[in-house]
Design brief:
158 residues; alpha+beta; GMP Synthetase, Chain A, domain 3; 4-stranded mixed β-sheet
Length: 158
């Protein structure tokens, strides 16, 4: 079995990340007019309702049906204010490879999806909302339809 060099590993990781990014962000719907994928949350909303709006709108930025917003819950108030936003997906792109501890390709694939999810979840709009509402951490999880966590992203306001 050929051991991958660091350069080969980085190359594979970049390729997989680019492919997954394309799969996640491509829009296959016919376009009549340019649709905005910008997320806007009312500045007068409470922290929880603002995060609920953000999660709901974020799910809508993905290819139809690939990710669905489930719920938002406050998990801590002191010493930090923390929320968890739960999404669900049965899209194969968002299902982690179970053998990643022994299979380097599966590990790299999982790592790539995790990076795509981190980038997609922790947008500047969420960071601004967190600063405005004095929220310290928001975690976004993608669960499969059985409720098993597949990917997790954590966001802080700075």
């Amino acid at each position: 079995m050929h051991k991958l060099t660091s350069l080969e590993t980085i190359g594979i990781l970049l390729l997989v990340t680019a492919c997954l990014g394309w799969l996640v962000y491509r829009d296959t719907r016919p376009q009549k007019k340019q649709e905005s994928r910008e997320i806007t949350v009312a500045s007068s909303a409470t922290a929880e309702s603002a995060i609920i709006q953000y999660g709901s709108q974020l799910a809508g930025t993905f290819e139809k049906g690939s990710i669905s917003y489930v719920n938002t819950s406050k998990t801590m108030e002191t010493p930090l204010v923390a929320y968890v936003v739960v999404f669900t997906s049965d899209d194969p792109v968002f299902q982690s490879a179970p053998n990643a501890t022994t299979d380097k390709a599966a590990y790299l694939s999982n790592r790539s999806v995790a990076l795509v999810w981190q980038t997609a979840f922790c947008k500047p709009e969420l960071k601004e909302l967190m600063q405005r509402q004095r929220v310290n951490i928001v975690t976004g999880t993608i669960n499969n339809t059985r409720g098993d966590t597949q990917f997790l992203a954590s966001c802080t306001p700075d």
